[in-house]
User: Fold this.
Amino acid sequence: MSGHSKWATIKHKKGAADAARGKLFAKLIRQVEVAAREGGGDTDMNPTLRTMFQKARDASVPIDTIERAVKRGIGDLEGVIYESITYEGYAPGGVAVLVDVLTDNRNRTGAEIRNLFTKNGGSMAEPGAVAWQFERKGIVVADRAAEEDDLMLLALEAGAEDIADDGDGWRITTGASDLHAVRTALEDGGVAVSSSELTMVPTASISLTTSESARKVLRLIDILDDNDDVQDVFANFDIPDEILMEDL
Assistant:
């Protein structure tokens, strides 16, 4: 497994801690609301909403909270109108970074993101300068107790592209449009699934071979991710396990 994939797993565990503070809940609720507004409130007809709904449930967001977010999105309840924006930039060492935000004030958020890049050794980039280095994929994390052969058969038949040992579980990569089908096939086959989400996977990575270089990049990623308007941060770094597991 690449250092980037391992860092994604660490981020997921960090998200569980964020959930205890309510921060992750707030971000997930906003994602559900925007998905409903852009594609309607029927999860059968709106695959983005279906994915965001499931992601919120995986994080233990209460069902009534999710349903209220859907109602705000489709206009049945009053709510703030959020705009979806992706900012592009570079972390120290030329690492490409994508920052997905949902904001009710484009000017405020844009200035905040630019300031975070600048103060932490990075720089903003023009639209399109970074995005071409990533592909949208689905990621399903399944129970480690599942037998690899059974898991592989179920996942590949449903359209999975890759299966990797994630240490605590199995990490299954799918095409963006196959995410729901793969998760459903696994669950129907008796495999417990802990999470599924759409993500941006780098097509090539920049190797960070020292603790100092890794620390600089991860500091920027963490600070960006901590912004209330930021929904996710993607980057094309690869950090060796021995450096990644240090106290960065």
